[in-house]
Amino acid sequence: MSESPLVLMKDIVKRFPGVLANDHVTFELRRGEVHALLGENGAGKTTLMNILYGLYKPDSGEIYVKGRKANIRSPRDAIRLGIGMVHQHFRLIPTHTVTENIILGLKEAGFVINYKKMNEEIKRLAESYGWKINPDARMWQLSAGEKQQVEILKALYRKAEILILDEPTSVLTPQETRALFRAVRRMAEEGKGVIFITHKLEEVMEVSDRVTVMRKGRVVVTKNTRDTNPQELANYMVGRPVIFEIEKKELQPGDPVAVIKDLYAMSDKGVLALKGVNLEVRRNEILGLAGVTGNGQVELVEVITGLRKAVKGRVIIDGKDVTNRSPREIMELGVAYIPPETLRWGVVPSLRVVDNLFLKAYRYPPFSKSAVIDWKKVYEKAEELIREFEIITPSPFVKTRTLSGGNIQRLILARELSGIIGGGVPKLIVAAYPTKGLDVGATEFVLKTLVKYRDMGSGVLLVSEDLEEILRVSDRVAVIFDGKIMGVFKSSEADIEEIGLLMAGVKEKAKAG
Amino acid sequence: MALLPIRFERRLTYTRTAAILTTILAILLAFGAVAILFIILGLDVAAAFQTILNVFITPRLFFQAVVRGVPITLAALGLAIAFRMNFWNIGAEGQIYMGAFASTGIVLAHIYYGFLPEVLVLPTMFLTAFLAGGAWCLLPAVLKAKLNVNEILTTLMMNFIAILWVAYLIYGPWRDPEGFGFPLSIPFPDYAKFLFIAGNQAYTGFTITLIVAALIYLLFRYGKLGFELTVIGQSLDAARYAGINIAKAIVLGAFLSGGLAGIGGLSILSGIIGRLRPDLSPGYGYTAIIVSFLAALNPWLIVPAGIFFGGLFTAGEALQATLKIPGAAVEMFQSIIFIFIIFGEFLKRYRIVVGGGGSGG
Ligand SMILES: Nc1ncnc2c1ncn2[C@@H]1O[C@H](COP(=O)(O)OP(=O)(O)O)[C@@H](O)[C@H]1O
Ligand SMILES: [Mg+2]
C-alpha cells in the first residue's frame, strides 16, 4: 500500500465577490517534497493556501491530511494537524522577543514559562537549519530575512510537518534567499512537505521537486520539476496562443516621443530596481514591455510619469528633459498614465464616478475658473465621456467602488485619453498592466482603445505580464529582466521561445557561462 | 493572533439610517448610564434630568448653551477641514488659546497705545486670532508634509505650549494691575465684545458660526482646494498620481483649520468671559473633535451638534449650582456622554466579530 499524501485538496472552489479565486482546484503534497505553487499575481495561490490554513472556508471541495478527511475551520485546527504557514506579510509583534513570539498562543507553554529552556531549544532548532538567531532579540531589531526565519521556526516549533511559504523570497536579499533554499531542502530531507509559493521561474527550478502551475483560479498542470523548463513554465503561467485578432493599420512609426537613457532607480525596499534601462517609444507605435512581474516594470513607469525619482539617467518626452519632474508637469506635457493596481492609484473608490473622471482635469479650464470648479461643465462632459467610453454606471454620481473592474478601467481610459487634461491626443500613453484582472470583453476594449490612439498618433508603452497580449497589439517588444532590457524585437519577427528565455533571465546566464 | 476571541473589522459601508440610529441610541444609552451614576451617588434623578432638560427649553439657559456652543462649533468646523484630508489635528485646544492670546494682544495694544479707531478693534481681533490659530497649526502641518512627522503628537504637544504661554502672560506681564493679584487681564472694553455688534452675544456668535459653516460648505462643494483635500483624505496615493500638490494643500488646510479654532478662542473672550484667563476653555478644543465626528464632518450638522455640547457644559454648571452636585460628578456626567458617543462613532466604522476564523466570503 502506498503511503497517502500529506495533503490532498480536492475540487476546491472559492468565490469572492466578482472573482472565482479557486475554480475546482486539486492539489497534492507528498512527504519529503518541496512543491512549488507557481502563478501570476491573482492566480489564486494565496487563497488556496489560506483555505488549507483555515483562514478561509471553501465554498466546496474536500481536504485530506495524511489520508484523513479534515475539517479545518481555523488556523488553530490547521496547527493541530501539523500545518504551518508563513504569510506574504509578517505577523509578528515587534516589541516581543524571538522566544516570546514563538511561544505566543502555545498551549504547552503552560502558565509557568521556562524561558531558559525554551531559548536553548529554539537556538538549537535554528542551528539545525543553519541559522544563527538570538532568542532574546526583539523582533524590531531583526532584518526581514531573520523575521522570516522566526516565522518558520514558530511553525517548526509547533511540530509542523506541512509548511506553507507564501512568496518567501520577495523580501529577501540573494544571500538570504540561498540560505532559505538550503533550509527548505533540509526540511524536505527530514520528511516534511513544503509548499513554496512563487511567481519566479528560476526559484521553481532551483528549489522544488514538483511544480503546480495556476492561472486564473485553475490548475494548469502539475509536473516533476526535472521534466520541465522555465520556458515551458512561462507558457503555462501566461496562457495559450492568440485567439483574437485586433485590427491594426500598417503605420510607419514616427519620431521618438519618449527616450529613456541609462536609467537607474530604487525600489520601495531601497534596492536597485532599474539598472541602466535604455528604451525608445515612437509616435504611431505600441512598444510592449514583456517580463515577469517584479523585474522593474513598475519602477520604470513610475519614473517616466514622475512618481519615482531616478538616481541616474534621463527621461526625455517630446524632446524635453523631464527627469525627476513632478507628475503634474509631466502629465501637462501630454503623458497619459494608466497605472497598475487601479484601486490604489487609479481611482479613489469612495468618491463618485464624476470625481474620478475629473481627478486630474478639475483644475483646467473650462472645468474651473481660478479657485472654483464649474460643476455644470464637469457634469455635462462626464455624461459625454460615459457614453463615448461605454462606461456602464447607473449615473455619474454613484461611488466608483460599485463599478466592475472593467468599467473602472474604462473610466481611467476616459480620463487619461479623452483630451480633458491637456487637450488633444496624448503624446505618450503609459499603460501598466491595463488588462490585469479584466474579463475578455473589457480586455478587448482596452487593447482596441490603445491601438486606436496609436493610430491617431500616440506613442504607447504597454507593460504586461501576458506575452500573448503583447504580441497581439505591439509593434515592437522589449524584454525586461532584473532591471535591464534584455532585447528589443519587431513583433512580426519575434521568436516566442527566445523571449520566454529572456524573460526568465536564462539567456544571459547562458551567455555568461 | 488575537489574544481575545474578539476582532474589530473595518466596515466598508454603513447606511445613513443606521448611522443616525446609532447616534441616537448612543445618546440615549449615555443618558441611561448617567441616570445610573446619579442613582449610585444618591441624587434625585428626576430633578437632575429636569435641570438638564431645562437648559434646552428655557430661553435664558438656551442662550447660555448657544454662547458656549460657539467656540466648540467654530473649532469643530475647522477640524472638519483637517479631518476630511485625514490630518488628525487634535490641537484645537491650543489653537483656541493662541486665538485668545492674539485677540487680547490687540485689545491691550489698543488700550495702551490707542492706534485704531474703536470700530476696527474687533475686526482686527478676528484677523489676528485667525492668523495666530492658523500659525499654531502650521508647524505640525509642515512637519507632516515635508518630513512625514505624525501630526497627532505634534498638534497635541503644541496644546501644552499654548496653554502654558497664556498662563505665563496672565501671571506675568499681562496681569491686570488693578485685579487684586488674580490671574486675569484687564476686562475687555465693550467695543471688543460681541455685545458691541448685536446687543446679545448669543445672536452674534450664532451668526458667525452660520457664516463659517456656509463658507466651509462652499469650499468643499465648489472649491478646487476642497476637492483636493477630499482626494488627499480618501487616498494619498491617488492624490499623488493626480498631480495634486499635497504638501501645499495640507499646509493650507491645516492653516484654515487652526485659524477657525483661533476665532473660537476669540469668541470665548469676546463672547463669554470678557477678558483673558488661564482657564479660558474647559476643553472646548477636545469636545470639538467629538462634535466634528458626531456630525460626520458635515458643516450644517456641526452647528446643532456644537450647541448641544455647549448645552451639556451649561447643564453641568446648572447641576452644580442648583442641586449642589459635586464638580467631579459633573465631569463624570460629561465624560460618560462623550464615551458613549465615541463608542457609537467607532461602531459606525468597525464591527465587532466574536470568535475566531473568518469565511472571507
Ligand atoms: N479576501 C478577499 N476578498 C476578495 N477578493 C479576494 C480576496 N482575496 C483574494 N481575492 C481575489 O482572488 C483572486 C486570487 O487572489 P490571490 O489568491 O491572492 O492570488 P495570488 O496569491 O495567486 O496572487 C484575486 O483576483 C484577488 O483579487
Ligand atoms: Mg499571493
List the helices and strands and how they pair.
The complex is a heterodimer of chains A (513) and B (361).
Chain A: E1 7-16, E2 19-29, E3 34-39, H1 45-52, E4 60-65, E5 68-70, H2 75-80, E6 83-86, H3 98-103, H4 115-128, H5 144-157, E7 162-166, H6 174-189, E8 193-198, H7 201-207, E9 210-215, E10 218-224, H8 230-238, E11 256-266, E12 272-282, E13 285-290, H9 297-304, E14 312-317, E15 320-321, H10 327-332, E16 335-338, H11 342-346, H12 353-357, E17 368-369, E18 372-373, H13 375-388, H14 405-417, E19 428-432, H15 440-456, E20 459-464, H16 467-473, E21 476-481, E22 484-490, H17 496-503, H18 506-512
Parallel strand pairs in A: 3-8, 3-9, 6-7, 7-8, 13-20, 13-21, 16-19, 19-20
Antiparallel strand pairs in A: 1-2, 1-4, 4-5, 9-10, 11-12, 11-14, 14-15, 17-18, 21-22
Chain B: E1 6-10, H1 16-40, H2 45-57, H3 59-84, H4 92-113, H5 118-147, H6 151-171, H7 195-198, H8 201-222, H9 224-234, H10 236-241, H11 246-273, H12 284-294, H13 299-322, H14 327-349, E2 350-354
Helix pairs in contact in B: 1-14, 2-3, 2-13, 3-8, 3-9, 3-11, 3-12, 3-13, 4-5, 4-6, 4-11, 4-12, 5-6, 5-11, 8-9, 8-11, 8-13, 9-11, 12-13, 12-14, 13-14
Bound molecules: adenosine-5'-diphosphate and magnesium ion.
Residues 16, 19, 21, 39, 41-47, 437 of chain A line the site of adenosine-5'-diphosphate (ADP).
